[in-house]
Amino acid sequence: MDTNDQIPAAPMQAMPPVPSAPTSAVVYATFWERFAASFIDGIIILAVTFGVSFLLGVALTKSSGPSPVGNFLGLMVLVGEWLYFALMESSGRQGTIGKGVMGIKVTDLDHNRVSFGRASGRFFGRMISSLILGIGYLFMLFTEKRQNLHDIMAGTLIVKK
Fold it and tell me: Which one, of 127, 114, 119, 50, lies nearest residue 84 by Cα?
């Protein structure tokens, strides 16, 4: 081999970009934070339900004849709870008053704000989580992202703000 003969150099390959570290790590809400948020929301819903029931009861005692108050009130409570949870969780707050007090919020799996439809699915999925002694709520103790059954079904996460 002649000294003038050189081995061609391998073409340089660009180094892949180094991924930047996330600005903040995602911290999932604990069981007790979620429990406390639910407790606060329960007190709010109970107070509103009691107030409406009282006013409705006073109005209906002045009327005569049978009244389907119980069925109507039950439907009102269900619709009121659904709107409370779905509207607040899909709003810019990303959570109910209880979640706000506890410093947690609802996101989708990509950590974005959820839609009203997804928040509604999460609300109605809670009924399934409540079945069989509330076992669906205990899922969070065994899942990596601390998701309850209704969170898994709706594709949501509860994270710290």
Answer: 119
Alpha-carbon span 24 to 22, nearest angstrom = 5
Buried/exposed 22-40: b ≥16 CB within 10 Å, e otherwise: eeeeeebbeeebbebbbeb
Q: Residue written as tokens 């076992």?
A: 135
Instruction: Tell me if residue 28 falls in helix, strand or coil.
Output: strand
Note the Cα 152 to chain centre separation in Å.
10
What's the pLDDT tens digit per position in 90-139?
999 999 999 999 999 999 999 999 999 999 999 999 999 999 899 999 99
CB 96 within 8 A of CB 83: no
Is the CB of residue 123 less than 8 Å from the CB of residue 80?
no
For the cut 90, the answer to whether the pLDDT of residue 67 exceeds it is no
Q: Which two tokens stand for residue 21?
A: 């570290």
* 44 vs 64: CA distance, rounded Å: 32
Mean pLDDT in residue range 75-104: 95
Q: H helices within 19-144, ranges in order?
A: 31-61, 69-89, 97-102, 116-138
